[in-house]
Amino acid sequence: MTQITEILNHNTAFVENKEYETFISGKFPEKKVVVLTCMDTRLTELLPRAMNMRNGDAKILKTAGAVISSPFGSIMRSILVALYELQAEEVIVVGHYECGMASLNAGHIMGQMRERGVSDEVLATLEHSGVQLGQWFKGVENETEGVMHSVDMIANHPLMPAGVPVHGMLIDPKTGKLELIEDGYERLRGKAHSTPDTP
């Protein structure tokens, strides 16, 4: 039995047994937050439980390492849509310890691409077209740096609405323990104090 067949068979029973009823919620996040986290498999159920988030509580976005690679890519667009259109009022970036992005090696990935059939000609064409694959697949120095990179990109984005707190956290993928590394409320208070009075 293929993976897709197994999924579809399960889904048929899921719908027939009305198991979906416990997940019914609205499209707006009850807790008014957007959570950007890593795609790590250990966080699929652990992170929402550790944060006391149930279905319908938050908009949850996932990307490798919880790292935003482009200020005008799909992750940043999704955050802005959540804030402007879907009633979210805060952003929480949650990275995790033992993250693969902290040890990501662009050269190794490109070697894997070659082994799986991507030709040197294709890689060279992309490089000559301005796609810097080495930079695109670059990891981060450590998990804290990855979270702070995303927090800073979000908080300083030119399209961010004023007054939105952007928090940074790290989660232990074994225990679910959260560590606050950037308090978005403090950052906003700091900005308020550093803004010169206007006449």
UniProtKB/TrEMBL annotation:
PANTHER family membership: CARBON DISULFIDE HYDROLASE, CARBONIC ANHYDRASE
Species of origin:
Saccharibacillus brassicae
May I ask which residue range the UniProt record assigns to the signal sequence?
none
Family under the similarity heading: Belongs to the beta-class carbonic anhydrase family.
Please name the InterPro entries in this protein's record.
Carbonic_anhydrase, Carbonic_anhydrase_sf
- Which enzyme class, named as a word? lyase
Give the top-rank taxon of the lineage listed in the UniProt record for this protein.
Bacteria
**Requisite cofactors:** Zn(2+)
Name the Gene3D superfamilies for this protein: Carbonic anhydrase
Name of the protein in its database record: carbonic anhydrase
As recorded in UniProt, its EC number(s) are 4.2.1.1
Gene Ontology MF terms in the entry: carbonate dehydratase activity; zinc ion binding
The reaction(s) catalysed by this protein are:
hydrogencarbonate + H(+) = CO2 + H2O
Q: How is the cofactor bound?
A: Binds 1 zinc ion per subunit.
Q: Which UniProt keyword terms apply here?
A: Metal-binding, Zinc
